Amino acid sequence: MEERLQKVMANAGVASRRASEKLILDGKVMVNGQVIKELGVKVSPSDVVLVNGQAIDREDKVYYLLYKPRGVITAVKDDKGRKTVVDILDDVSQRVYPVGRLDYDTSGLLLLTNDGQMANRLMHPRYKVNKTYVAKVKGIPSNDVLKRLRLGVIIEGKKTAPAKVKVISSDRQKQTAIVQLTIHEGRNHQVRNMLKAVGHPVQKLSRETYGFLTLKGLTSGDYRALTRDEIDELKKMTGLK
Question: Which residues does the UniProt record annotate as the domain RNA-binding S4 (predicted)?
């Protein structure tokens, strides 16, 4: 089955489809040894595609859900020799990549795939994929604090999008609380920074949901392949189906 060259590049995780088109127009792409400088070219699975002299990866698309433990790096490899999320998926033969990231000390739901186009869309703010976190925080947030989080707080000069937030439980003796926070943005350390900005630093953090996906049936360090229905639902959410 032939597909447009820029779509094949996007699916392989080279870049977004628009950025892939620019690479083609800039003469950075070769098909079967020939430089391609025009859009509309279609390629088959047997064609050899090079971008900046490097062959692109055209493996079958796979999708995994991982219950990331604390103390694991969200990366493909780590120059300090620390364990990565890819190390956990040691029996997966395809080269998968994490969709977004969770901090070293944050546990919870993480998607990994080799479908670059879907990964790019899931991370793009346009698609507003909700992610729910549960945090143990210092202090007990007041109703005014919760209202600030719901309306958005200023982090590094930029206001966050409105969030859903509630206090699940509190311990007045220890002066701690368990807070559930749902956002669709994906800024670096966002949940920690939001709670810190309102005076309630995070002591422990976990991501419980990603869109409609949950950690049901998994314990820390477990992972599973997504079902066909789950993959189809993600494609619908991101306009790929």
Answer: 3-71
Domains of the chain: 3-55 (3.10.290.10), 63-125+215-237 (3.30.70.580), 130-210 (3.30.70.1560)
Mean pLDDT of the chain: 92
pLDDT score for 221: 97
Whether 21 shows a pLDDT value over 90: the answer reads yes
Burial class (CB in 10 A: 0-12, 13-18, 19+), 109: buried
- 23: which 2 tokens? 């690479």
- The residues that are catalytic are 103
pLDDT digits (tens, 9 = 90+) for 107-145: 999 999 988 888 989 988 888 899 999 999 999 999 999
CB-CB contact of 207 with 110 (8 Å): yes
Instruction: Output the pTM of the full model.
Output: 0.78
DSSP 15: S
CA distances from 12 to 33, 49, 103, 146, 164 (A): 19, 11, 25, 41, 34
Query: Which residue carries 């992972």 as its tokens?
Result: 223
Give the β-pairing of 106-113 and 202-210: parallel
